[in-house]
Specification:
Largest sheet: 15 strands, parallel
Structural class: alpha/beta
Helix content: 25-40%
Distance between the termini: 57 Å
Number of helices: 18
Oligomer: single chain
Radius of gyration: 26 Å
Strand order of the largest sheet: 1-2-3-4-5-6-7-8-9-10-11-12-13-14-15
Number of strands: 15
CATH class of the domain at 343-473: Alpha Beta
Shape: flat
CATH architecture of the domain at 343-473: Alpha-Beta Horseshoe
CATH superfamily of the domain at 343-473: Ribonuclease Inhibitor
């Protein structure tokens, strides 16, 4: 039999992993396959996805998997053949294996692993089977979410030749502690790894210090350590590591960064290439960055390359907002996330008056009491003309604030607007239906106010409203 093509191998893996281990009973009378898994049903699925996409690939996978589970010999293979012909020329970035089904037949189905570039595993047995296989696995992206792991399992992973080409490793909620992570820092076979995520695991001060001095640190471009029991001292250890000087994307959310950690990041000699910094939330309400930590951070030369800054829930207040407004080095910033920060209208006036924030495309101010004063400041600012996403949920706004936004001469590119849980009514809906940005809108959320069905219908009937746009009412 001729060898299967590599794209065919990759697709067949997704479908074949679900093959039953027991053949159908011989006495079962032959029947036509249900439409849900028939070749005719497949044509409907393929018609919805004529071009390559991750979403299309996943739907085709799900359909073919159902056919295989029902009967691989009688019509599962027919469905596979047609599906494979449809996706055989799709690029590799569309092929992603998801789910926690064990690869019990990894030796039998191993050839299909050879082009699976992304794999999401939810069971320890699946990981063990993957590491046992003798097939030439070329994984680039591995996710181990909610898979119980210990030191031995991590050592086996790091030492396996199956991960030599791995560029991204994500481990979330694995029950890992600092001592369990020691094999990871040695690199082992992870010679190509540039992106590491260790979330909801206990790294702590010991683990942070080990990482800061590790061989692996030199390879990393992206590092995510959210909710890993870090404190200001832990952050200082990371910030003081020359080995982390290549990191461009740093996520330390849901840790006790505090003022100490923010100041350490600001004064770091090595974290000078950061393009994305995420410090939102904190594991202790009493340990936040506040205005002082925010000012230190945004005034630092290390913030000069930032394109995305996420500081939600850090109690920065108006003083922190004005610190951002005064930090001219933030002129590359495109996304600014400041939810739940005790910012009032006065603080937003500062942000709206800052010329260096004119590159902003996304601004999130949910949960801040900015009121009509703050929304109006955004609406009348020429520096906010590039906004494409604006989220102002539960900010104490009324029609008096949101109507000027709809009438704004400056804001005309909005694609997403979220004004839920504000005291707005049909007057706002009327002006939105006539706004300059209505035609570019792809998502409009207004739930939780006083807009009537008639108000929503006015928007949906308005000239320029895109038929595929989402209106959340």
């Amino acid at each position: 039999m001729p060898a299967l093509s590599k794209p065919l191998f990759s697709f067949a893996l997704l479908c074949a992993l679900a093959a039953p281990s027991v053949a159908p009973a011989q006495h079962t009378p032959p029947v036509d396959p249900p439409v849900s898994v028939s070749a005719a049903g497949l044509e409907d699925v393929l018609a919805r996805h004529p071009e390559a996409s991750r979403e299309g690939f996943q739907e085709i996978v799900a359909f073919a998997r159902q056919a295989w589970e029902r009967d691989p010999e009688r019509y599962g293979r027919e469905v596979h053949g047609r599906a494979l012909a449809h996706v055989s020329s799709w690029p590799s970035w569309t092929r992603e294996v998801r789910g926690g089904r064990a690869l019990a037949g990894v030796d039998e189905f191993g050839p299909w692993l050879e082009l699976a570039e992304k794999l999401e595993i939810g069971q320890a047995s699946t990981l063990a089977a993957l590491l046992r296989t003798t097939h030439d696995v070329k994984l680039r992206d591995l996710k181990l979410h909610s898979v119980p792991l210990g030191r031995a399992e991590l050592a086996a992973l790091v030492g396996s030749v199956r991960v030599r080409g791995l560029r991204s490793l994500s481990m979330v909620s694995n029950g890992l502690e600092a001592r369990d992570l020691e094999p990871l820092w040695s690199v082992g076979q992870l010679v190509s790894l540039t992106s590491l995520e260790v979330g909801h695991n206990e790294v702590g001060e010991v683990g942070a210090a080990a990482l800061a001095g590790s061989a692996l640190a030199r390879q990393l471009r992206r590092l995510s350590l959210y909710d890993t029991k870090l404190n200001g001292s832990s952050v200082a250890a990371l910030a003081g590591s020359e080995r982390l000087s290549s990191v461009r994307d740093l996520n330390l959310a849901m840790n006790e960064v505090c003022v100490e950690g923010a100041q350490a990041l600001a004064s770091s000699k090595w974290l000078t290439k950061l393009e994305k910094l995420q410090l939102d939330e904190t594991s202790s309400y009493h340990c936040t960055m506040g205005a002082r930590g925010t000012a230190a951070l945004v005034e630092s030369p290390n913030a000069a390359n930032l394109r995305e800054l996420i500081l939600g829930g850090q109690k920065i207040g108006d003083e922190g907002a004005w610190a951002i407004a005064s930090a001219e080095g933030l002129d590359n910033l495109e996304r600014l996330i400041l939810y739940d920060n005790m910012i009032s209208g006065r603080g937003v006036e500062g942000l709206a008056s800052a010329p260096h924030l004119s590159r902003l495309k996304t601004l999130v101010l949910n949960g801040n009491p900015i009121g009509d004063r703050g929304v109006t400041a955004l609406a009348t600012s020429p520096h906010m003309s590039g906004l494409e996403v604006l989220m102002i949920v539960n900010v104490g706004a009324t029609d008096d604030g949101v109507i000027p936004l709809a009438q704004s001469e400056h804001i005309s590119r909005l694609r997403e607007l979220d004004v839920r849980q504000n005291a707005i009514g049909d007057a706002t809906a009327r002006y939105i239906s006539m706004s300059r940005w209505l035609g570019s809108m792809r998502m409009l959320a207004m739930r939780g106010g006083n807009v009537s069905d008639m108000g929503y219908e006015r928007i949906e009937r308005a000239q320029g409203w895109h038929r595929e746009a989402r209106l959340i009412r």
